[in-house]
Amino acid sequence: xxxxxxxxxxxxxxxGETLVHALRGVSFAVDKGEFVAITGxxxxxxxxxxxxxxxxxxxxxxxxxLGDTEVATMDDxxxxxxxxxxxGFVFQQFNLLSRVTALANVELPLLYAGRADxxxxxxxxxxxxxxxxxxxxxxxxxxxxxxQRVAIARALVNDPSIILADEPTxxxxxxxxxxxxxxxxxxNDTGITxxxxxxxxxxxxxxxxxxxxxxGLIVADEQVDKRLTATEVLATMPAMET
Length: 242
Description:
The chain is built from eight helices and ten strands. By secondary structure, it is an alpha/beta fold.
């Protein structure tokens, strides 16, 4: 069952006086429970594709269906509703508020949604990512790996069916990267669909499927025969504070 169906997606925009063709007719589908890595060189269109998948932007033409809902023609308010109900985001820069605690950062989506149980749900999400003992810590009191786990907890707190991760290990050391990938693999094993943009070939190998972009087109779409299992990689690495 496809949770995402993209058909002939194009995206063009003006850069100064130059018309940029970021996507040139992209078609692919993602089934429920898949773990997909989107890769490609800088300027290949992978980040533009991620923004469209996350309802942060709309295509110039083509169809994007999220489940049975056509979202390609939605306005900003409609896109915001879809994002809040269906999608959790994880970014390279963590995007945490620096002056509030880990718990308060995770509570934010629930605050915007008007949920009365936000403290309990945020605490549960932080426990889920192994940070139950860091609830009152500020971001600058956490390592990079811990900050990214706070960001993952925030992405999970509204029970999304899809997690979108944009270069989630780009600012992390190797051990921290493997710990984050282990967490994504565990989440995927529970049935959450994970779509990740990465320029790192070894990180892409943690997914079950790799979609490669170049010049605004998909040039390869392949299953990963022998994916890297992060917990097995971690067992071979020396421990450090993460």
